[in-house]
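BACKBONE STRUCTURE TOKENS:
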Amino acid sequence: MNLLRLQAELVDLEQQLIDQWRLDRTASAENEDNNRDAEDRRLYGLDFWHMRECMVDGKHSTINNHARSYNTRTISRVGSATVAALSSTLPTLAILVLYFVKDMVTRLGLIILFTTIFAFALAFFTDAKKVEIFSATAAFAAVEVVYVGSTSAGGGGN
């Protein structure tokens, strides 16, 4: 009789341990979900964009709660628009800034800065070869130097 009662107590204890393990596991998962929720709230702007713009065949392109699948065409369009904006803005911005700077040493420093930004933009946003990046960067720097050489250091034309 005592043996049966001891066996029943052991089964009960085993069940309590299993229940506690499941409870701990659930609490750990909920804590992890709370951490992810906080991260998701920080990325709300991107998630809003995802829900609004990134739909495939009229359905959201969500793989699961934390991974997204985007339409390749949409990504390509955003990349092309970024490159177009950067390629038209950077040379114009460089000339505009150089126009208003009066000190020649500062102008030369800005030429170095803008040329470096231009080279990094080419390397990052295009599939250009090293020699193409070098050639385009040299041409960009040459245009800036010719502009600076043709204007007075007083911030305008002759």
User: Anything to note?
Assistant: The beta strands are 55-56, 59-60, 62-64, 67-68. The chain has two domains: 2-70, 79-150.
